[in-house]
Amino acid sequence: MYGGVAVYDWSPPQIVTILPDTGYYYFYFKDDDYTYWLDRPTGCLMGTLTASDKSSPPPGASVTLLDSLGQTIGIFSDFIDSSYHFDYLCESSYTLMASAPGYRDTLITGISLCEGDTLFIPITLESNVAVAISSYYISRDGNSVMITWSVKSDISGVAFDIFRGKSPELKLMTKRNISPITGSTTFAFRDELEDPYSDYYYYIIEISDKNPVQLGPILSEGTTPRMISKLHQNFPNPFNPATTIPYTIGEADAGKDVTISFYDVSGKLLEKYHLGTKGSGEYTFRWNPAISTGKQLPSGVYYCRLQVGKEIYTRKLILLR
Fold this sequence. Notes:
With 321 residues, the chain is mainly β. The chain folds into four domains: 5-39, no CATH class; 43-125, Immunoglobulin-like (Sandwich); 133-220, Immunoglobulin-like; 230-319, Immunoglobulin-like (Sandwich), CATH 2.60.40.4070. 1% of the residues lie in helices and 52% in strands. The protein has one helix and 27 strands. The two termini are 52 Å apart. The model is unreliable at 1-5 (pLDDT under 50).
């Protein structure tokens, strides 16, 4: 857990404790006498931040620590000297991002920290003498993402590439533009999406042979489907001789193949129906095993399995004669 209020929710009881400080904690609970205690991980990331043209951090410099999902854990900006540090870290993968006005952002990814480790990572900021991205804006509309950004001054011949991935790591991303993205002080790129419900990360990178300006990772959050696929409980249940089975095809699964199958308790397949492709919406399937199988099934438990694309949903049915 990280910061705030820790809650162990178990009925009964509920335990609430105020954590003494922000950071990661281990929460231990002993369920025979309802005692608990806290401990802190002992990992540490530390190092120095310097600029290529000076030995100390430039004004406004900061080092941001990100977790493996690209979420911010903490920001260090209170430099007394050139040292930074992040304490009480658990075993995980981390990313460091250093930035300062007038300098290129520096990203260090794939930092693997074990329990109890202290890693020393020096960071050097390169002066941004040519191009500086002053602002950017990202928006999402259905199946596309629009990215616009501006540079501080009109520099002839400046061009950019856009990289995208489902991970915030640049090395795992692919270039999205075919031709270089050009402009004067303002640039724009529209990216078409294969999956509007997924999160995507972007990098804006200047096309340069040496020390290109880059901005990222920039997160574009996926839209939440208003309707998701689900197999509902049949009615009536128990049933005799027939039952109705409701199911939902979600927006993300529209157009995928749908099958519905029935099994006995031993796992033997009794029937399977290919329902073809369906749009998102609410549907029902009527099952009368006496008619469809041509024989009377004995009383007992049976299972219905709905497959939508690669996803599988299962419900228990009871036949009672």
